[in-house]
């Protein structure tokens, strides 16, 4: 090959090979989603037509854990449709995190780039969170490398950083992680006091939708301390909880843990991560962020975030930590977010991925024959999959699409936007025959308009974790009363939706109410003379809507500013080249 073509060939190869690695890694995890239908499994609930109503804004009486997530999904689905929305919700964060870690280590060798991009997608943390259906947390995971990049690069971009924080803040946990990590980075790098204050204020404003919904939405701000032990990080690999977390696993639900984690592969993953975090620290500290970035300070910020995250993940798994966390979730508003402690491992996962890239870069800088370089790249791509070869054993039940019957749309047309509907059998999770009996959150609150009330108590093994919705508790008492129909009417319930083909029964008195619709899967009955019930005051509704609109306007304005800045930068680059 002529000498002048070699740099161009290497540049093309440096772009194409990582792209192929990302495509294969994403396909390895998500291929079951290619079928038609909607995704319904565990905590993952996508429906054909999700309404944008007060419940989607967090004013339905339930805890504001899906704020503003439900509103975002409703808006995007109205434009792109349900099938594409659900697939993009999974694909976008996986692709984004891969290119985010690459952006933080632009000088990594090609094998190192492939290794860390593949590992950022295929690792126990991602697999377990996908298997449990908590896809929205992966948006915060994907946002973190980009957040660090925009803050610590030679020319920081606070609008871009705030856009990333907004993407992470579709759930409260993601918002808290992005806010804390971004603020720490802003404090450690050489930003002006004005820029730091601007970022802190902007990142705080982005949290307003779920914060306001939490205070005015009708759910209790405290949580049941019984959930601390249940949802604490658990050992899924030999050696205990610490080894499991070090190997990027440790989720509380054993049913979503790949079986191979319980053997030698779980220990190997922990040893690999530990070795790379230690062995790659010096190389990473000098190069994180790329040329002109505050590499050492940005590494320090990421290390601090990772260390704090690991401590939060370990805390409820110890006796003193469990006692402290139990007191916090019972006494401090919003502290219930601490219960599912393994999710705080997120910054450490990013650090581990970057450390693997640093170590592979160190050992692949020596010139080698073409075949050896190709073998190294293939090995780097295959390593993450080899560490979790049975990912599909836990992913397939969650990611295999289902088909909603037309009955759901028929029932949705019978329910008005101001109605209150109770769903029975009275349990939070379902095991529908038409969905292969898989455990899944009830989709009714995301299909029906108005206020939809389900049981928010969680039964894990022999432990029942008390719910946070006062209305849900009142409805549960009404269903168990001697005259459930009168009790439901007094609560302002308009309809009861009876879901068939799932374990459990409706009270006989409720099943005997006037039928509005009766099908093979669903029966909708009317409650006579329901009392008037106000979901929220006009001021509360206005405040919550205003917070969503404010954040939406911020996102639109910052996006426009970034597009303009990108066009201007491109024109400047072209002018410089033409001189």
Could you explain the architecture of this structure?
The chain crosses the membrane at residues 12-31, 80-101, 108-126, 132-152, 164-191, 197-221, 233-252, 264-284, 299-324, 344-363, 541-567. The chain has a domain at 3-34 and 81-399. 58% of the residues lie in helices and 6% in strands. It has 25 helices and eleven strands. Strand 7 (458-460) and strand 8 (463-465) form a beta hairpin. Helix 8 packs antiparallel against helix 9, helix 8 (172-188) runs antiparallel to helix 15 (295-314) and helix 10 (208-216) runs antiparallel to helix 25 (538-578). The mean pLDDT is 91.
Keyword list:
transmembrane, globular, two-stranded antiparallel ribbon, alpha+beta
Give the topology, please.
Layout: H1 6-30, E1 40-41, E2 44-45, H2 69-80, H3 82-104, H4 110-121, H5 124-131, H6 137-152, H7 158-168, H8 172-188, H9 193-206, H10 208-216, H11 226-231, H12 241-246, H13 264-279, H14 281-287, H15 295-314, H16 319-331, H17 346-363, H18 370-387, H19 392-399, H20 406-414, E3 420-424, E4 429-430, E5 440-441, H21 444-447, E6 451-453, E7 458-460, E8 463-465, H22 470-479, H23 484-490, E9 495-499, H24 508-511, E10 515-518, E11 522-526, H25 538-578
Parallel strand pairs: 3-6, 3-9
Antiparallel strand pairs: 1-2, 4-5, 7-8, 9-11, 10-11
Helix pairs in contact: 1-3, 1-4, 2-3, 3-4, 3-6, 4-17, 4-18, 5-19, 6-7, 6-8, 6-17, 7-8, 7-9, 7-25, 8-9, 8-15, 10-25, 13-17, 14-15, 15-17
């Amino acid at each position: 090959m002529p000498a002048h073509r070699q740099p161009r060939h290497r540049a093309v190869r440096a772009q194409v090979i990582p792209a192929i690695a990302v495509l294969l890694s994403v396909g390895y995890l998500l291929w079951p989603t290619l079928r038609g239908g909607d995704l319904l499994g565990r905590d993952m609930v996508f429906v054909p037509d999700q309404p944008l109503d007060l419940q989607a804004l967090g004013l339905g009486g339930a805890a504001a854990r899906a704020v503003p997530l439900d509103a975002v999904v409703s808006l995007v689905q109205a434009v792109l449709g349900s099938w594409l929305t659900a697939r993009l919700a999974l694909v976008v964060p996986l692709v984004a995190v891969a290119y985010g870690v690459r952006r933080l280590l632009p000088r990594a060798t090609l094998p190192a780039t492939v290794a860390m991009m593949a590992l950022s997608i295929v690792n126990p943390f991602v697999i377990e969170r996908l298997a449990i259906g908590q896809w929205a947390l992966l948006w915060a995971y994907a946002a973190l490398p980009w957040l660090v990049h925009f803050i610590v690069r030679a020319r920081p971009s606070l609008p871009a950083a705030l856009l990333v924080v907004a993407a992470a803040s579709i759930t409260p946990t993601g918002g808290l992680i992005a806010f804390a990590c971004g603020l720490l980075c802003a404090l450690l790098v050489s930003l002006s006091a004005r820029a730091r204050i601007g970022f802190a204020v902007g990142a705080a404003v982005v949290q307003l939708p779920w914060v306001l919904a939490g205070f005015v939405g009708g759910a209790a701000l405290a949580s049941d301390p019984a959930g601390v032990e249940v949802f604490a990080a658990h050992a899924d690999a030999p050696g205990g909880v610490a080894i499991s977390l070090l190997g990027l696993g440790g989720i509380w639900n054993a049913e979503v843990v790949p079986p191979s984690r319980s053997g030698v592969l779980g220990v190997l993953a922990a040893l690999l991560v530990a070795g790379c975090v230690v062995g790659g620290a010096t190389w990473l500290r000098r190069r994180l962020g790329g040329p002109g970035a505050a590499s050492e300070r940005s590494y320090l910020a990421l290390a601090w975030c990772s260390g704090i995250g690991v401590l939060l993940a370990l805390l409820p798994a110890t006796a003193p930590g469990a006692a402290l966390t139990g007191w916090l979730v019972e006494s401090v508003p919003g502290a219930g977010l601490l219960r599912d402690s393994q999710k705080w491992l997120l910054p450490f996962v990013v650090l581990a991925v970057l450390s693997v890239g640093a170590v592979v870069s160190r050992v692949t800088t020596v010139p080698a024959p073409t075949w050896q370089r190709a073998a190294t790249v293939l090995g780097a791509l295959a390593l993450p999959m080899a560490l979790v070869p049975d990912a599909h054993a836990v992913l397939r039940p969650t990611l295999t699409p289902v088909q909603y019957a037309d009955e759901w749309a028929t029932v949705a047309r019978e329910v008005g936007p101001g109605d209150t509907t109770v769903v029975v059998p009275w349990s939070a999770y379902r095991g529908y025959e038409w969905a292969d009996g898989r455990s899944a959150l009830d989709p009714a609150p995301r299909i029906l308009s108005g206020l939809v009330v389900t049981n928010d108590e969680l039964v894990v093994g022999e432990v029942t974790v008390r719910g946070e919705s006062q209305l849900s508790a009142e409805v549960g008492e009404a269903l168990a009363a001697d005259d459930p129909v009168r009790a439901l009417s007094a609560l302002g319930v308009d309809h009861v939706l009876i879901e068939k083909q799932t374990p459990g029964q409706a009270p006989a008195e409720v099943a005997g109410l006037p039928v509005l619709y009766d099908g093979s899967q669903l029966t909708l009955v009317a409650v006579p003379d329901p009392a008037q019930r106000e979901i929220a005051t006009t001021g509360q509704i206005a405040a919550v809507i205003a917070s969503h609109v404010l954040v939406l306007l911020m996102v639109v304005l910052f996006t426009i500013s970034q597009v303009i800045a990108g066009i201007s930068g491109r024109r400047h680059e072209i002018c410089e080249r033409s001189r």
